[in-house]
Automatic annotation (TrEMBL):
<keyword id="KW-0624">Polysaccharide degradation</keyword>
<dbReference type="InterPro" id="IPR017853">
    <property type="entry name" value="GH"/>
</dbReference>
<keyword id="KW-0378">Hydrolase</keyword>
<comment type="similarity">
    <text>Belongs to the glycosyl hydrolase 10 (cellulase F) family.</text>
</comment>
<dbReference type="Pfam" id="PF00331">
    <property type="entry name" value="Glyco_hydro_10"/>
</dbReference>
<dbReference type="InterPro" id="IPR044846">
    <property type="entry name" value="GH10"/>
</dbReference>
<feature type="signal peptide">
    <location>
        <begin position="1"/>
        <end position="26"/>
    </location>
</feature>
<dbReference type="InterPro" id="IPR001000">
    <property type="entry name" value="GH10_dom"/>
</dbReference>
<keyword id="KW-0119">Carbohydrate metabolism</keyword>
<protein>
    <recommendedName>
        <fullName>GH10 domain-containing protein</fullName>
    </recommendedName>
</protein>
<keyword id="KW-0732">Signal</keyword>
<dbReference type="InterPro" id="IPR008979">
    <property type="entry name" value="Galactose-bd-like_sf"/>
</dbReference>
<feature type="domain" description="GH10">
    <location>
        <begin position="209"/>
        <end position="505"/>
    </location>
</feature>
<dbReference type="GO" id="GO:0000272">
    <property type="term" value="P:polysaccharide catabolic process"/>
</dbReference>
<dbReference type="GO" id="GO:0031176">
    <property type="term" value="F:endo-1,4-beta-xylanase activity"/>
</dbReference>
């Protein structure tokens, strides 16, 4: 009997070491572990290839590739250097990486790794801002849904200018769909959960064996929410539906300049104020979106007609009015929305205009995190205006002395998600050490509702499993006409397939009520998702109700209850 008691205690100690996820993972999984390594620096020598090269480990360019092989492919668009691949597996995700260097008259150029196959069109699977004379790291990937006899990965300058491209330490690592999910689950268990031990004792310190414990998670630490519009005002059913699910919100249009000041000098914050009352009443945090939008199509008409001096005065008034009115109310502000694709303010006010917006906003509300919010960074690498390195370069330009708090906003308007590319992009952005949020997630309405749900679940799992993603916002505010691209419910608040996905994941990423009792050491251990918990303990006629916070940490959280 004593043997089993000791064995039980040893099992408990393993749990307390907060490595149970890794232990169970390694015991049940013999596939490749995903390598999250990424580099921003241009290096004199390339690093070793990830996965020791993967399936490219023994690739022989002399045998596996020659120009005659490429010439036999019926397209003039494939160039050297390239990898000619045969018999890629279906239902497989491929993580691709390579070090790239350019030579020629150009100091730097965006180099894309493209993928071609016999039954698919060309697509970008990774990009890098390569430089002359040093090695830059490209990381991306692709998915294969059907068997391929012949395919090619090749490198190309996005501007098709005459430069020489050299590659080194290339790697292509396959993951089956199940292996990819196993890696996701491992990261979720190790990054979004933590071990807890509850110790129960009498007032005199005596351990109490057999005390009945009920543990219930009452709130989540990870922010997962959605956009709302003024259609939620007065709609009690919608309000109840939203508050039961989400712990963070963002106003779809009600803070944008064209809403708050449609005519010069006529400020109207009525809708934003009323929506703020709703989120406060339900203890929901809220993002500020946005101060400025660089796209002139969404800039108030009266602003577009101002002279430079008048515009400077107007933007100063806008920042002061908005930020002072709502100082401390919004956890984030998207300062200059979509600045990689549009440049209305910098064209009118000079190249330092955006920097001054960030500086002024930071002074007005120093505790709000200021975000650079952009589309087509994590969704694709085909958009030359918003490659991951372009985003990083622009963000570094904004990190000046008095802008100490910055965030990475990735809109996430997806069509068919490329999960290996998405993860690779997040890996590289994570090297900045800044909070990353997916801020406007949806799936294109070009797909039917079932397919939208499939793709949405893929995106949400990928984001939640990445340790550097700090929050996820869905772009699914309800209107009489529907939603921007993707709704979670119909107008009667009946779940669509996408809503079913969200509800399923909210349940999955929550610690369900636990009922148990303390062991001979007067303690009980469990592994729970991060957040707030309620613990009820009964021993005989003695009862205690307590709450505790489970925040991220490598060590076991110990919580003491006395009866």
């Amino acid at each position: 009997m004593k043997f089993f008691s000791v064995l039980l205690h040893l099992i408990k100690l393993l749990l307390l070491l907060n490595c149970i996820a890794q232990l169970s993972f390694s015991a049940a999984y013999d596939g490749p572990l995903y390598d999250s390594s990424a580099y921003r620096e241009c290096k004199t020598q390339p690093e070793d290839p990830l996965y020791n090269g993967g399936v490219l480990r023994h690739y022989d360019h002399n045998n596996g590739f020659n120009q005659k092989t490429l010439d036999s492919i019926t397209t003039p668009q494939i160039f050297s250097p390239a990898f000619v691949l045969q018999n890629l597996n279906q239902a497989t995700k491929y993580s691709f990486s390579s070090w790239v260097k350019i030579d020629g008259d150009t100091e730097s150029a965006i180099i894309r790794a493209n993928f071609w196959s016999e039954n698919s069109s060309f697509k970008c699977i990774g990009s890098v801002l390569a430089k002359r004379g040093c090695w830059s790291f490209l990381k991306g990937g692709f998915e294969i849904r059907s068997p391929l006899n012949l395919s090619v990965i090749y490198f190309q300058n996005s501007e098709d200018s005459g430069i020489d491209i050299s590659i080194a330490s290339s790697s292509l690592q396959p993951f089956t769909d199940q292996q990819w999910k196993s890696n996701q689950d491992y990261k979720i268990n190790s990054e979004r959960k933590r071990a807890v031990t509850i110790h129960v004792s009498a007032k005199n310190g005596t351990r109490l064996q057999g005390a009945q414990i009920i543990v219930d998670q009452i709130s989540k630490e990870f922010p997962l929410g959605s956009a709302i519009a003024n259609t939620i005002l007065g709609n009690l059913s919608y309000q109840k539906w939203f508050a039961e699910r989400f712990n963070v919100a963002v106003f779809e249009n009600e803070l944008k300049w064209y809403t708050t000041e449609p005519e010069q000098g006529k400020l109207n914050y009525t809708l934003a104020d009323q929506m703020l009352e709703f989120v406060r009443a339900n203890q929901i945090i809220v993002r500020g979106h946005n101060i400025f939008w660089e796209d002139p199509a969404y800039t108030p008409a009266w602003v577009r007609n101002l002279t430079s001096d008048q515009l400077q005065s107007a933007v100063n008034s806008r920042i002061q009015s908005l930020m002072h009115k709502y100082r401390g109310d919004f956890i984030h502000w998207d300062v200059s929305n979509e600045m990689l694709h549009f440049d209305f303010y910098e064209e009118k006010l000079g190249q330092n205009a955006t920097l001054s917006f960030f500086e002024t906003a930071h002074k007005a509300d120093p505790l709000a995190t200021l975000f650079m919010n952009e589309f087509n960074v994590v969704e694709t690498c085909s958009d030359v205006k918003s490659t991951v390195d372009t985003f990083i370069s622009r963000l570094k330009d904004l990190k000046r002395d008095d802008i100490r708090m910055g965030g990475i906003g990735l809109e996430g308007h997806f069509s068919v998600p490329n999960l290996p590319l998405m993860r690779a992009t997040l890996d590289k952005l994570a090297t900045l050490g800044l909070p990353i949020w997916l801020t406007e997630v949806d799936i294109s309405k070009s797909f039917d509702k079932q397919k939208q749900a499939v793709y949405l679940e893929q995106v949400l799992r990928e984001a939640f499993s990445h340790p550097s993603v700090n929050g996820i916002m869905l772009w699914s505010a309800i209107h009489p006409y529907g939603c921007y691209q993707m709704c979670l419910t119909d107008n009667d608040l009946r779940n669509l397939p996408t809503g079913d996905v969200v509800d399923k994941l909210l349940q999955e990423w929550n610690t369900r009520e636990i009922t148990n009792q303390t062991d001979e050491y007067g303690s009980f251990s469990f592994y729970g998702f991060l957040g707030e918990y309620k613990a009820s303990v009964r021993y005989g006629d003695r009862i205690s109700n307590s709450t505790f916070s489970l925040l991220k940490g490598d060590e076991t959280k110990h919580f003491n209850i006395q009866l």
